């Protein structure tokens, strides 16, 4: 009996070893081959003594209202994942520019780059200057929300309005007890990324435990980067970016934000970068978005807070209709 069970177990292991660990389409290091919802333009610059390029979407409105919205994506997102919001904003008269930051999606994955929020904000500012855009509505989600806060702090006179959608960076994880995490550890973890791991994480945090098939293309978008020929470069850039996020907090600068600010917060969000690597006693103190959103609204002068009681980290994707109503209402005043 024991031999039979052992033989069966060995057959299962052998079958698993032969199986494709993460079947699906593979994309190039700049998301080559992924079907984009809008044409991708390229902005080539020299940054940190090397040529790099930013992919971006520049989508004209149906009936222009003379205003521009800039959409800043999150860590596990791309410009393309703003598709529904782009259509809502252009339908309301806004020109929409959605860049992929250096290290992400359709943009360059440098082997060596000093990633900082100031650098990414400067790259975005250079792109907007190139396009002749002044005083846009700057809308950032997740890591993009943290970047949007830095952008408003660096360029207050050139920011018409700031919108942060479930931004990370509402707390300083290191101050709350997150231990130092070597970049090599981030890199090793990122190399293990699969569609299954992405899907499980997104279901738990982005969608408050729910799942719908309409979320799957965005899972496959990310997974395709990690299946592709540039997976090591993608994983290394991802590791460098995680280090940037954890080591460059912005929450203490919130009182210095001097532009009209709207916070859109899904209340079932539990996101905290590195929480899975924190000791259990620390893990439980991180990612309480109802408290964090209200604290941020109190800290930012004149900020307006809109809460979505049943939504998670990505309200713009989980309930687009409710989210876009709140967004368009919140940015309607010039």
From TrEMBL:
Residues of the signal peptide: 1-19
Top-level division of the source organism's lineage: Bacteria
Keyword list, A-Z: Hydrolase, Signal
GO biological process, one term: acylglycerol catabolic process
Keyword Hydrolase part of the UniProt annotation: yes
Domain annotation AB hydrolase-1: ranges: 70-325
Pfam families, per database record: Abhydrolase_6 (PF12697)
Any GO MF annotation of the entry: monoacylglycerol lipase activity
GO cellular component: membrane
Protein name: Alpha/beta hydrolase
Native source organism of the sequence: Methylobacterium oryzihabitans
């Amino acid at each position: 009996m024991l031999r039979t069970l052992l033989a069966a177990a060995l057959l299962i292991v052998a079958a698993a070893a032969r199986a494709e660990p993460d079947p699906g389409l593979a994309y190039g290091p700049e998301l080559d081959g992924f079907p984009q919802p809008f044409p991708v333009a390229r902005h080539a610059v020299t940054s940190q003594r090397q040529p790099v390029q930013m992919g971006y979407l520049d989508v004209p409105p149906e009936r222009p209202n003379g205003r521009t919205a800039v959409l800043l994506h999150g860590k596990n997102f791309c410009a393309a994942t703003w598709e529904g919001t782009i259509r809502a904003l252009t339908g309301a008269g806004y020109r929409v520019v959605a860049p992929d930051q250096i290290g992400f999606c359709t943009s360059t994955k440098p082997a060596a780059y000093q990633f900082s929020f100031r650098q990414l904000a400067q790259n975005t500012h250079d792109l907007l200057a190139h396009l002749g855009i002044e005083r846009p509505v700057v809308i950032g989600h997740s890591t993009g929300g943290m970047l949007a806060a830095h952008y408003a702090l660096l360029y207050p006179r050139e920011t018409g309005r700031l919108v942060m959608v479930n931004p990370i960076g509402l707390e300083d994880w290191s101050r709350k007890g997150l231990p130092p995490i070597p970049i090599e550890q981030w890199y090793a973890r990122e190399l293990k990324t699969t569609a299954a791991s992405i899907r499980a994480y997104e279901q738990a945090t982005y969608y408050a435990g729910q799942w719908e098939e309409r979320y799957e293309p965005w899972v496959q978008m990310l997974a395709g980067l990690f299946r592709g020929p540039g997976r090591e470069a993608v994983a290394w850039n991802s590791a460098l970016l995680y280090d940037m996020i954890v080591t460059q907090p912005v929450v203490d600068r919130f009182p210095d934000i001097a532009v009209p600010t709207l916070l859109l917060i899904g209340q079932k969000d539990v996101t905290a970068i590195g929480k899975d690597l924190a000791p259990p006693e620390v893990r439980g103190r991180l990612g309480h978005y109802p408290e964090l959103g209200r604290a941020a609204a109190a800290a930012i002068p004149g900020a307006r807070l809109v809460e979505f009681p049943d939504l998670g980290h990505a309200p713009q994707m989980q309930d687009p209709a409710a989210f876009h109503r709140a967004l368009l209402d919140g940015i309607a005043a010039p």
